[in-house]
Amino acid sequence: MFADPARAKHAFKVAIALVLTFWLALQWEWINPYWAGFAVLFCSLATQGESLNKMMLRILGTIIAVAAALTMMSLFGQDRWYFLAACCAYAAILAYVMTGKRNVYMWQVSFFVVMAIIPSYSSDINHVFQVSMARMQETILGCSLWALIDMLIWPITNLGSLNKTAADLSKAQQKLVRLCGEDTLRADSRSDREAEFGELRTQQVQLVAKLASTLQAAGSESYDVSSRRRGWDRLADGSREFATEIDQWQAGLAELSHIELATVVPDSAEFIAAIEQDL
Question: Which of 218, 62, 256, 49 is nearest to 140 (CA)?
């Protein structure tokens, strides 16, 4: 019936989380229960690590937005021009930090949650406070329910994917060293290997990017990964440096086009083999 069982299981978990979220929000008579539903939909990713990472960013972004909205309305709520200037300054700061590489989703949430709270402003500051607290409560409810269901029903972790990516990256680097080593030692084999080198180089770049994204997600779900985060970060940084060095090695082979390096440097084969073995 289902062509992809994994997608069917994920859809089933999302459906259960949505039903429970709306039931609890309506049972407790919270305003705008769909806010909790949005939290489930936006944070229900394929693996536990990715979901936990996005949930933490969404909750933190909501807390920042609630604090910012209440502060601006308390200080400048009686003067529309000061209030407008404060909103513009807040939006400008968030637009700047969103151009960075870390916690971008948190700053995005901080922006659009403030824009959702501000229209609720009226002469009664208590109403604004109630709307702000409801937004934060329902976000936490949706994220918490999805985390619980994702952990109990068919859990999928990122640790296996992280180890596999690291192993694939090591194999790709070994092939690159072997290829460059053969081209270095044998001048007659340097002309027809550019396509193969390009494919391996592209594969390595993709694996390094995948390693970085998987590492961020796996660190949220696994203590083993987070406790060894520096080592994993060194692997990612070292792989980027390796890519630069291997490009320089390949580019320098043109200068050796008429030289048999094995004859000039007798130990070069053993040196290249040692590099490959270390990888």
Answer: 62
d(CA 26, CA 267): 76
Q: Which amino acid is at 192?
A: D
- The H or E element that residue 121 is part of is none
User: Which residues have a Cβ under 8 Å from the Cβ of 73 and sit 6 or more positions away?
Assistant: 83, 118, 121, 125, 128
- Per-residue pLDDT reduced to its tens digit, 14-29: 999 999 999 999 999 8
Classify each residue of 18-44 as buried b or exposed e, where b means 16 or more C-beta atoms within 10 Å of its C-beta.
bebbbebbeeeebeebebbbbbbebbb
> Which pair of tokens denotes residue 64?
């920042």
Residue with tokens 């390009």: 198
pLDDT digit string (tens) for 94-110?
999 988 877 888 999 99
Spatial CA neighbour of 65 closest among 38, 29, 93: 93
The radius of gyration of the chain from alpha carbons, rounded to an integer in Å, stands at: 27
Quote the Cα angle for 50-157-278, to 5°: 100
